[in-house]
Amino acid sequence: MSRTTTPTTRQPVLVAGQWEDGAADETLHSVDATSGERLASYACAGPDQIDRAARAAADAFETLRATSPQQRAELLEDIAARLAGDEEAIVTVAHTETGLPIARLQGELARTTGQLRLFSSLLDEASYLDVRIDHATDTTPDLRFHRIPVGPVAVFGASNFPLAFSNAGGDTASALAAGCPVIVKAHQAHLGTGARVSGHIADAVAAAGLPGGTHSALVGRGRVLGTALVQHPAIAAVGFTGSRSGGLALVAAAQSRPDPIPVFAEMSSLNPAILFPSALTDATAAAYLDSLTLGAGQFCTKPGLLLVPEGPDGDRFVAEVARLLESRVGQTMLTAGIGDALAEASSAVGGLDGVTEVGRGTPGGAATAAAPQVFSTSAARIAADERTHTEMFGAAGLIARYAGEEDLLAAVRALPGQLTATVHAETEESPVLVPLLRLLERKAGRIIVGGWPTGVAVAHTMVHGGPFPATTDARVTSVGTAAIDRFLRPVTYQSTPEALLPPAVQEENPWGTPRAIDVFSR
Amino acid sequence: MSRTTTPTTRQPVLVAGQWEDGAADETLHSVDATSGERLASYACAGPDQIDRAARAAADAFETLRATSPQQRAELLEDIAARLAGDEEAIVTVAHTETGLPIARLQGELARTTGQLRLFSSLLDEASYLDVRIDHATDTTPDLRFHRIPVGPVAVFGASNFPLAFSNAGGDTASALAAGCPVIVKAHQAHLGTGARVSGHIADAVAAAGLPGGTHSALVGRGRVLGTALVQHPAIAAVGFTGSRSGGLALVAAAQSRPDPIPVFAEMSSLNPAILFPSALTDATAAAYLDSLTLGAGQFCTKPGLLLVPEGPDGDRFVAEVARLLESRVGQTMLTAGIGDALAEASSAVGGLDGVTEVGRGTPGGAATAAAPQVFSTSAARIAADERTHTEMFGAAGLIARYAGEEDLLAAVRALPGQLTATVHAETEESPVLVPLLRLLERKAGRIIVGGWPTGVAVAHTMVHGGPFPATTDARVTSVGTAAIDRFLRPVTYQSTPEALLPPAVQEENPWGTPRAIDVFSR
């Protein structure tokens, strides 16, 4: 066991800053996504390693939560700098393991470091602590409200974002920003990438003089490692991006604890996009297919359902989609399993009564590079048959034709919760636009007018979340600064002498935190 | 069926502003808490009435959520004024039904109206909408973040606060403030009080020109009415104050929905209070018993566990508690059932190995007015035997003697989540004080130094919440302005023309809402 600055180590398990061989009998393999060839073997973490990582996180929490927001801002900046400094190696291993294009991975790394730096800005400003002070009055005591971190967080990396939603992704960044140690369950689709990234986090933690338990990264299967992590008494919350079955399994495990903990799972979404007549142009058809097939359609925000008016203009639009689709070529998918799941979901949807194929493109070179596909049905089917709401994770989409605005609204009302909802229309095009947008508000966390849902800005203003089954908690987001809210809880100090108060609520305000003082005192 | 301004109607079920006879076969009775005599019969709501109330709430939601915060502020002010104007009648019926003293009920009504007015102030100011705007840049779209109401809320009234935690209590006030219609399941310990109060809410709703579905109040048993409400598709969230078994039953019902919804349940707490040597005075003994026996000990924040040092000063303190206890007289409890549960819990705790009785007072006149009781054990037992953590809801307490600071910390570490934790010490008394307070932070939502936990200020700065099992969600409070957060979720509008934006995020800012504009744009 040794601390390393070259995290390409073949010791795959990072327990509290130390690389170790996995102690379990089971072994996972990293795979070249394009050729299907095995790259390396990773022995899974054993129960003792999981337990030590969790206990170390609990110990580290006491130190980490006592740091100032500014100290944690420096930690995040340092992680970002280390990742940026190792771009070539990180992007190379991620490209091999995921088949994602180099340029996309360079962009994703920039997004990952930008995300860490955004949380650093949030910490510097520190209004996220929500400090409120009511000084004592004749009838009420001195009360000081602020938010504290909840404790160690288990993070489950996502297959489709090996950087931005994985070891150093948004869940990790927001949890560390809050003051919560992080144990990552590395996604098995990019184990080498995860190890390299977590090595930089561990190095930054060590350089900051923080305990190694601030970050661990474990390898293992969801049913074993995932369940063990979620049920470990030291874990206080869970961040997950992945399938609905995976997310709900973690919720069930968390709810069966003696002390249930929250699981913030971002799971599945159709991302309905609605075209009004003015949008039925060839340019829209091309932009739709660009969004549908971006990254082989492997985005949570892929526009899986497109609502198009009936009638000749709509027919021409759909014909143009079919024509353009012919020249679209399938791209290598992240894993063979994801390719299989897409084939299964698209043949299930394609086989439903009232669903027909609009067209398909050409398969790509790799075994998983299935031809992009688009199906068609009626809005009435969307309203009547929830099997048409099945997510096809990959470059496949469903177009639903609506007869009129009532038909459109009925279909939208029938939809379950979504991450996004998109409308293409002229502002004055229809009196139904405003009611439609207010209806979509109830269905989704983000409303887009005139754009496409893929491409999620990491911002103070972003909501990447939405009602079930898009997520397990519509009150939060997993992207943007508000993601920190998941890992904080409020605590009030009453009648407490200055010397005994935590810094955030001391009268002296050593952290320079924005505060709401005596705002609603009557 | 008729709308009434004299809500002493014997028609007990308020469906969307109309009083109706209950349609179920089962009948509940209101009871004189002191004599045990039956006062009135209330037929329970039938399935059709529950369904109509929920559908009416869903319809009303569309209107209510479109109102401005200022309009809802006026509604809350009007409800407060109507309740204050009917003080004599409300307090009289509540006194008969609950046995609580007139002065206490007058205070509780003032608290209830003050609470409504506090939310009115919050709405006038409107920062709770958390509006954030990032204008478009060369690389990012225009993004506008705000919070919207979640939908109709089911509120379960509490036995021990017939006014402040019931039909027009904190859950109702915060849900209406958010823009969510409210269906109250009236607590069967004060059905007449609930009907009178809900009549005023319905009148204020009608006077404001809002749909009757904005407020319904139903009578029935938890297992029937409660489950039906929580599982109704129209209900989006639940507020509950009561027993752990009741709260967990609602969580199970909510989790078994096709679309699980959040249940914000405030359930049980020992409210540990820790005395350091300087606090071992006769005045502390008297103040402890005052807090323990206030309202017959029927407060969620009653100091159920008192940690007292071993040694002669601690012995003298406990002897003084025993001496003072002799002259304390039992008070009428809210219901016979609560009296029975107290008897059962206190004999369970009193019968544990290593637990002895310190003393007891005198029973009061009513059948339920059990003698106040205090038991004693060791801090080591608290650390070792979780049966000593059993809540005794009523005027019963457990004193745990600690041998030293390590012994104290071990006992505190073993405690489950709490609503409050209290410390009595001189600021410079011990170096363990600061670590102890930071440990208590992890256990409780409110830390009190030198006071007592009973008496919860309704304030912008209050946290009435805490880790499980004190509540089902430690990230929220059920008292104070932050209670509104339970019923809001964030939504972002991207690239949306001004004419299609909701008022809160329009550039023009018609509601005059405080906004964070371009704060973290890099």
TrEMBL record, chains A, B:
Stretches that traverse the bilayer: none
InterPro entries: Ald_DH/histidinol_DH, Ald_DH_C, Ald_DH_N, Aldehyde_DH_dom, Aldehyde_DH_Superfamily, ALDH_KGSADH
GO molecular function: oxidoreductase activity, acting on the aldehyde or oxo group of donors, NAD or NADP as acceptor
Keyword Oxidoreductase: yes
PANTHER family to which the protein is assigned, alphabetical: ALDEHYDE DEHYDROGENASE-RELATED, SUCCINATE-SEMIALDEHYDE DEHYDROGENASE, MITOCHONDRIAL
Domain Aldehyde dehydrogenase residues, every copy: 19-334
Keyword Nucleotide-binding annotated: no
Name recorded for this polypeptide: Aldehyde dehydrogenase (NADP(+))
Organism lineage string: Bacteria, Bacillati, Actinomycetota, Actinomycetes, Micrococcales
Gene3D superfamilies for this protein: Aldehyde Dehydrogenase, Chain A, domain 1, Aldehyde Dehydrogenase, Chain A, domain 2
Superkingdom to which the source organism belongs: Bacteria
Keywords of the record: Oxidoreductase
